[in-house]
Amino acid sequence: MDNAQRALRLLSRGRGGPGAAGAGAAESSGAAAGPPGDRDASAIARLLKEARASNGQPTAGDSADLDRLAGALVERAKSVMQRLEQGAAVSSVDDMDAAALESVIRTRGRPALAIEGQRLEAIDDTKHPGSGLWRTFVDDFEANMMRVAGATAAVLVRDQLSGRPPVVCGTAWLVGDGVMVTNRHVVLPQDPPRPAKRLDAEPTRVTVKSGFEFMVDFALDDGPARDRKSLVTEIPFVSADTDAVDIAVLRITAVPAGASPLKIGVKPPASKMVYLFGHPGVMAAVPLEVQAVFGTPNGRKRVCFGERMPDDPAYPGDWMHDASTIGGFSGGCMLTFADTDVAALHYYGHPVSGNRAIPAAALRSHAVRAFF
């Protein structure tokens, strides 16, 4: 199977006619499909202007520049798709290519909605192009989605010596009383400074380094300000670096009122339509290409929609999905709309090769199950 399945699935010429360039074809989800085109450019330009306006920046003077940038992104995405369809390797796709693809995919009904206290941000045809198909899902399942949102928190790290405020490094969710799940690489990132280290005597346990502090914030969203933070007191389990299951367990001081642990699914999910919670991380300078997908990432809780994709033999056992993600979604829980239990743990995302998650069955059969 071609590893570029996410982009090919949504943007391939084989997806039926003119796609976004014309009237458009429909996937199983009802989103437009086909090669990048003029309609995508118009939608991306609107997203860029919306992002500028939401940041208090005027758009009247540079509207034409944003239109040109949107057109350039679409042309680049179109060129990348042509290369991929002709057999080019995924490794030939650079960061700018990936940003162009992601900006087009966002216009194909893969929105990132803010959490506004006890409600989801309303789906707007201008701000969330191609996403109208999700309105019915939100109408039918918003109550359960908000229950899941309440059990989800941003993972924050504070470098106490720097004096800077804590930064978002990922997402975690309640799986028991005072017990949360996230990814291994959220706790032990590859890039320095690493805020924690493994214990020599117990390699699946880590200790937080002196001068660093982990905490979780259940209310880092677009709702009213409220204090729902909790310190991480212990990290009792982190899977080995060679373990295909990228997972870590956190213990916290207290669970906020109303936040209930989530159950890890036992039965095979009944639907392919999925949603994923995460906290897109703050960037010092946000490229316009990123603004076209996420506006201005600010660490605040978002929910992204998508579908489960066919399995990829290169990653046996993983779930593949096409929801839009960015740094900060690592460790997020994924559910299908037809089920109330967690279906998978998200751990990796790429605009071309797709996003990967660890299914509930793999979590239940792993040594980490002792902490659930």
Overview of this protein structure:
The structure is a single chain. Among the domains are: 1-108, no CATH class; 154-256, Beta Barrel (Thrombin, subunit H), CATH 2.40.10. The protein is 24% helix and 24% strand. The chain has eight helices and 18 strands. The chain has helices spanning 5-11, 38-54, 63-85, 95-106, 135-150, 184-187, 288-294, 360-364, and strands at residues 25-26, 32-33, 112-116, 119-120, 152-159, 167-176, 179-182, 196-198, 206-208, 212-217, 229-238, 248-252, 273-278, 302-309, 319-321, 333-336, 344-348, 355-359. The strands form four sheets. The protein has a six-stranded antiparallel β-barrel with strand order 13-14-15-18-17-16. A six-stranded antiparallel barrel has the order 5-6-7-12-11-10. Strands 1-2 form a two-stranded antiparallel sheet. Helix 2 (38-54) crosses helix 3. The chain starts with a helix and ends in an 8-residue tail after the last helix.
What does the largest sheet look like?
A: 6 strands, antiparallel, barrel
Helix content: 10-25%
Strand adjacency order, main sheet: 13-14-15-18-17-16
Radius of gyration: 20 Å
Helical element count?
A: 8
Class based on secondary structure composition and strand pairing: alpha+beta
Query: How do the SSEs run, as a string of H and E?
Result: HEEHHHEEHEEEHEEEEEEHEEEEEH
Low-confidence regions: 15-31
Whole-number mean pLDDT: 85
Distance between the termini: 35 Å
Shape: globular
In percent, how much strand structure appears in the residues?
15-25%
**β-strand number:** 18
